[in-house]
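A quick word before the example. In earlier lectures we treated sequence and structure as two separate objects. From today on, think of them as two lines of the same record. Here is UPF0042 nucleotide-binding protein CLOBAR_00280 written that way.
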Amino acid sequence: MKFVIVTGLSGSGKSEVMKVFEDMNYYCVDNLPPTLIVNFAEICYQAGSMVDKVALGIDIRGMKFFEDLHESLRTLKRENYPFEILFLDCDDDTLLKRYKMTRRNHPLALNRQIPEGIKIERKILNPLKEIANYIVDTTNMKPKDLKSEILKIYSIGEKHTNLTISVLSFGFKHGIPKDSDLVFDVRFLPNPYYLESLRNKTGDDQEVRDYVMNSDISKQFYAKLTDMIDFLIPQYVEEGKHHLVISIGCTGGRHRSVTIANLIAEEIQSKGYRVVKKHRDFMLK
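And the structure line, produced from the sequence above:
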C-alpha cells in the first residue's frame, strides 16, 4: 500500500500534483477533513481492499479541522499504518503573482491582504513541513516540470532518497536567505560587473559564465566546492534530512553567484539527486 498525504501552501500546485497522481492510477481524495484520515486509512488497509495506492489532498481550506491533523498522523503511526507526506512549497512573491494572475482569493486572506494570509498559512504549516518525507519547491516550476518531479519521486521501480536539494543564488546586499543550510561566498571570484559588455547580462549568459570560470582561482574553488558537497550530501541523506538549501552569494546576486549555482545544480542533478534551482535576486539591480 502506498499512502501519500499531499499538502503545502495554497497556490503551490497541489491541484496539479493530484492530477499527476490520478494519471498514475492513485485513488485520489482532495480536501479530506483531517479527522477522517484514520477512518479512511482503516478502510484502505483492511484485508481484501482493492485500493493499493492512495493520495490524500489536505490543505488550509479545512482550517477548522486542521488542528486535528497532527493527532490523526500520530494515530496512523501508533496503529502502524505507513504513510508519506509530500509538502509543496513556494516563495511568497511567486504565490502573490499566482493569486493576482488567477484573481482568486487566498483562503486566509478573505478579510486581509494576500501577503498577510500567506504569512499566517506558512506559520501554521511549518510543523508539517518539518516532518514531510518529500519537499518540492514549485517556485520556478511550470506544470510540466512539477509533473516530471512527481513522476521521478513516485514512479514504480525507481529508488530515490527523501532529500530534495535547493540550490539558491543570492546577493549579500539583499540579505542572506534565512532558510540556508550551507552558505558559500563567491565575492572573491572575477566580477563581470566591471565589464560594460557584461554588466547587464547574468550568470545564465554563456559570456558571463566563461568570464567567471576563466581563472585558476575559480577552477580551484569550484573543484573544492564540489568535492565538499559530494562529501556532505550523503551525510545529510544518512541523517534523514528531507530538504537541503545550498546558497551561493555574491554582491548583487546576478553574475558570479548565478554562474556557480547553475554549475553546482547541474553537477548535483547529474548524480541522480532531486534539485530545485532558484535565483533569488536575479532581476534586482
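Notice the following. The chain has a mean pLDDT of 88. We will return to this example when we discuss secondary structure assignment.
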